[in-house]
Amino acid sequence: MTTGSGTTSSSGAGAGTVRPAVVLLGLLALAVNLRAALAGYPPLLETVREDLGTSSGVAGFVQASAVLMMAVGSFAGSALGARFGRERALGVSVVILALGSVVRGVPALASLIVGSLLVGLGIGLAGVLLAGVVKEHLAERAGAVTGGYVVSMAIGATVASAVAVPLAAALGGWSFSLAVWAVPAALAVVIWVPVARRVGAPDRTAVRHPLPWRHGFARIAACYQAGTSLLFYGWITWLPPYYESHGWSPQRAGLLLAVWSVAQIPAALIAPTLAERHRRWRFWAGLTLGCVAVGTLGVMLFPMPGTAVPWMWAVLLGIGVGAGFPLGLTVIAWRTPDGAANAATSGLALGVGYISAGLGPLLMGVLIDLTKGFPAAIAVLLAAAALQAWAIWRIGDRPVA
User: If both were cysteines, with which of 147, 159, 239, 380 could 269 make a disulfide (CB 3.0 to 4.6 Å apart)?
Assistant: First the structure.
């Protein structure tokens, strides 16, 4: 791999040279789509539940099914990238995401679930492949670049959660509001195609890295991702319904989720960069986890819906989950020798994380139905924070392997 004026991908035999700035632009365009389709559903969850006549558990299963398919995509992403080339496979994964959004445009429970499965598969594949592309082309600034594309993801999520309800009203239904996210996904693929073509075919002689189930660091990284992913997807699914249960309108609850997403943007950009600069990963990971833990306790114990306090809790939650995900990918980038190893380790960590995140919102929905309230469901998120804290302590600030 070369750096400076250009980057040559080791994933391609005789691959062409692609400028790092061009790769970065393409990655940011793709990343905008990796949370938008998911973030557009929670503000509409209660509307969908009432329209289709489903329970909270079934409504939560829709989001859970998408996240569980993200786990499938994460486990498969490394092998797919090795077989076809990470850059090409990354473009295909976003095409799958776009197709899922189109399928969700049919206002029926079956199409909503099938479309969500496709959306989740596309996101899961893209997450692993994107991490490998960063290691391959932009390794010298892995922390800053990872923070940058997570910021793009947060921007997509912010816009999606803020406009979901108005779009449903303007377009004539919740299904159209979900389907509209196929458009930015298709545009991102158009931007990425020249990069994928320039890189060339995958190198069939390159060393393949299976998922490192027996590697101690990989297992701890997986525990870390399990905690941070469950916190993210638990709150993205149930924060709006929680405050709707306190009398808020769906639109106001959607704006609260937008504030939560906006708070992620500086955290996702600043925390990994500072951790990379000073090599104090444990400090920044612990500090940002403290924010999400305080916010979670605050929402559960002091919701105070008639005051400005919920917005403060949303900011703290956003800081914590916004920094948590890129910090996890950053420490993996530091401790893997090449793009293939990074993709394999990221695939394991993200796959385990998404299994936890997929089951978490589903379990929360069941607990809400059984207990007729939210405290037991929020306790699941506190358990996730405890698991993440343990992983942070174990990972520490050891030097790059």
Answer: 147
Closest by CA position to 290, among listed 155, 199, 385: 385
Mean pLDDT lowest for which of 137-146, 187-196, 291-300, 346-355? 137-146
Are the C-beta atoms of 185 and 98 separated by less than 8 Å? yes
Backbone dihedral region of 85: left (phi > 0), alpha (psi from -120 to 50 degrees) or beta?
left
Token representation of residue 246: 């306190």
Distance CA 314, CA 238 (A): 12
Q: Are 39 and 319 in contact (CB under 8 A)?
A: no
Extract the tokens encoding 270. 């600043």
pLDDT tens for residues 34-86?
Answer: 889 888 888 888 888 888 888 877 887 887 888 889 889 888 887 888 788 88
| The three-state (H, E, C) secondary structure of 11-73, written as one string | CECCCCEECHHHHHHHHHHHHCHHHHHHHCCHHHHHHHHHHHCCCHHHHHHHHHHHHHHHHHH
Yes or no: say if 317 and 296 are a contact pair by the CB < 8 Å rule.
yes
* Model pLDDT, residue 113: 94
Give residue-wise pLDDT tens across range 197-233: 876 556 554 555 667 777 788 899 999 999 999 999 8
For the chain, domains (ranges, CATH) are: 18-202+211-395 (1.20.1250.20)
Sign of the CA dihedral with 15 first, then 17, 22, and 23 last: positive
Q: Are 313 and 176 in contact (CB under 8 A)?
A: no
